[in-house]
Predict the 3D structure of the following.
Amino acid sequence: MLDEKKLEAVHVDYQMGIRRFAGKESLYEKYLFKFLEDTHYAEACAAMEKKNYAEVLSTVHALKGMTGTLGMDSVFESCAKIVSDIREERTADVEVHFTILKEQYELVCNLLAEMKENG
Amino acid sequence: MSEKDQILIVDDIEVNRIVLSEIFDVDSYEIYEAANGLEAMEIIREKGESLDLVLLDIMMPKMNGYEVLNVMRDMHLTEVVPVIVVTIIDNLDNEVYALELGAADIILKPIEPKIVKKRIQNIRDSFQYRRMMLEHKLENQGKENQGKKYLKEKENSKEEGNQTGQEYQRILHILDTILQHSNMESATHMLRVSRYTKVLLQSYAKENPEQKLTDSQIEKLANATLLHDVGKITISENIINKNKKLTVEEESVLKVHCSVGSKIIETLNASEEKEYLLYAYNICKYHHERYDGSGYPDGLTGSSIPYYACITSIANEYDIMTVNGEMTEDDAVHALNKYVDEWFSKEMLSYLNDCCGQFKGIAQEINGLEESVCKQEVETILKREILGNSRPKVRKEFPEFYSLFRYLEATVIEINPKKLSYDMIYSTLTDFTGLPAQGGIREELKDYFLKHIKGNSNEQILDWIVNSLLNEDISSIGKTSLIYNDVYEEYQWYQVSMITLHAANRIQRHLLLLQNINNDVSMQNVIEKSKQKVSHITTTINHYKQENRNLKALTQYDQLTGLYNKMYVKKEAQKHMLLNPQNQHGLIILDLDDFKTVNDTKGHLVGDRVLQDVGKIIKKTFRNNDIKGRFGGDEFAIFLTNIEDQEILLIKCEQLLTELRNFKADYLGEIVIKASIGCAKYPEDAHNFEDLFKKADVALYEVKKSGKGRGQRYHGVDNISKDDLMENRRDNKNEKPEVDMTADTNQFNKELSNVLYEVDDMDEMIERVMDRIARYYKVDSVAAVHVPDRYIQAKWFLKQSYDIKPPWGEQEAASVYREMQEKQAFIYCAEENRTDNIAQYYKKLNIHLQVIIPLQTNDKNNVVVFTKYAEGSELSKDEMEAYRRGTKILSILLRAKGVI
């Protein structure tokens, strides 16, 4: 049973997540922690450095799907923005939204890492 | 299926696969997973038709969802195996494409398990029947009179019994599928054949009085012909549509449609009514039999062929010959007569010869009707004959708009203005679940609204519905309301619209469209891609899109001239320079000469018109690719993209000056428009917009100082101080300073009271007031926002067209709220040079000024947000006062509407 309030503070919709996993809380938690090992974010950052927007698009798109399923609303939204920015060729906005994504992502991951450690 | 159902889940992200598989009970389902298209194909090739369902993601490495669909379609699997595409809604184009490729449905991520379950169930039901009829093998029929045997079988069959709601729905669904199928013949053909048959039967009845054929029987028989080619929906399109002669193989496939069709008809057993189905069964099966035994499927001869099947056969052949004027009526009759004793008996042909005179009239009449009307007719007849008179809870009408309604996620209610009653025609799974399918407007509907609509808009909406009906041809759009959704157990945003549909026979139907816009569905692509004719709905929906665009325009355009505003020009220019660094671009800044004089002598109205006309001239003089804008006051700027050489710049300047000089208009009188122009070029003069602008400005300054009225390019001499430039700018600002509240306030108040007085409609009033506020305070956007404590979802009271959230992060929110509480306003102004995190956010989004004022004292959740993107000055006390005033006005209006 994870601290729901803390998760809410970083905009993770815990209740919805559990619902999506057919009410199986432990399964949901398992995948929340598993998310920490996912590499798409790192790949997206690398792609941003190289300004390889095609790569950014596919990695962020994948990230979007995952975070949507896991109920990580704020990360999901920033991913959504980036995807539509790239699709509509608003490269200036991509930078801005990627910065926001970074922050949101780190907030969530830090909390999850902390929770994982404390058992 | 007694064994476990087989499901294939395809998605490259593991967690997504997990979530989908959780929907299925592990005892009844066997689940296979694939992480990309290639893996999926392996499983598909192995399992083929034994798969009961495929859940398919689109974006995957190695082989994506579309490619998988393509292959499955070529393998004809999409006809028997339901494929549901599970994807993120990025682009509706993609969705329609998936459907065209053969997907059965689309589910959006992130998934809502309850909904997904229901959808899957529905899809599988409809595929069930498809498989059933395809699995039927041809039986060897005896030469007995098939009719009697059939009737007997049915009597013994267990399918007898009470008609349940589910059974009803199933049949309805099957009929829908049949009628919608692309292989199904045209409804006009079906109706013609039916009418010809009727006439022939009347002749038959006269010649054979001992048969005691009644009128109602004739009617039933004629209606039974409608299904004669239903079997064709199982035949591949290639064969049906082939223009050339079919191969022997193809022919044998085609012949199958008679038996298969009759099997399908068997499954339509829903009511006690068996006679109709019996007729339909026989007609379908035997309408290709021939007198001499050369027909199919059974090679029956002479009188063992049911007489009405023969008659249908004649009618059918006649229609095939005469459709599209291939043959004249007389030639067709003549040709058919040649087949005496081969295809048809002498007797049958005699009926033809008696009646053919009437056929021409019938054809003309039916050909005058539209296909959709005929389809409706056919559908009505079939439903009546097969399902009897019981009324289901929810009807599905307007089949041609069906897919459109589905994508709009709209609930469609038909209103009868005379009886003031309503009838739910189409409903989504999750909206208005508590509303009875039929009822009175002032009774059930009012009741429902009272309980579900927030605020006191429920009364207004009912009145509005009734009023709209009294105005013929009025289609009103855009009453947004918060309505409680019982499935999601929260208030959600709906757009309520009235639409009038005109059918070909001048019947008007009034539809109430309730669209769930909680998630900002984009409709544009749907309309364009939908292959159905949408006439009225399209025009009314375009109106909505237009309104949406109008609001978006506030942030991009200069309202007076319709050109872009400074921020947008800057953004676009920078983008161009970034994307095409190797090309040449240019910036032209134009300043009208002595514009202040015009305003002073002729008044502001004339001044405004001059600006508008200048805007038009600029649009005319430059290309579409050039980015044309008004930077405020009497200053305009044009960024020219991808120019060939530098001469172009000066040539364009000259051209523009000439056009302006030559412009004449009555209101101008003897005034001639003169301007000063400065220009600069990329890459020689500068590499970014800021510098480009500065250099062009320097050039402009020189022109102004040396007599005005001409254009000049920056020539590299930069000894003009910044102060001089600034002063020059201010001098030439002929319009009132950025915000002159005193002069404007009276005018504003006057206009405001006009709006409040003249406009009855609350929504419109609020909109107009916001528009006025925006113009007078020269802000780029005014918005009334509800910001719940979770700052992610800012919901808008009026329109969901903005993509703006409070730009600060969650940690900053606390300090913002605190400030709002203390000072009853939060202010951000670039001029103040804040350096905290909040300022960072604003800088990134190019916001110069943002003022947030609570709508009610100490209410931090309901606020008005004023935003300026254009560069400007500090926030003066007067301006702040003005914002507060605007907020007060809005608060009154919104309270009146009942939303706060």
Notes: The longest strand of chain B covers residues 490-502. Chain B has a mean pLDDT of 73.
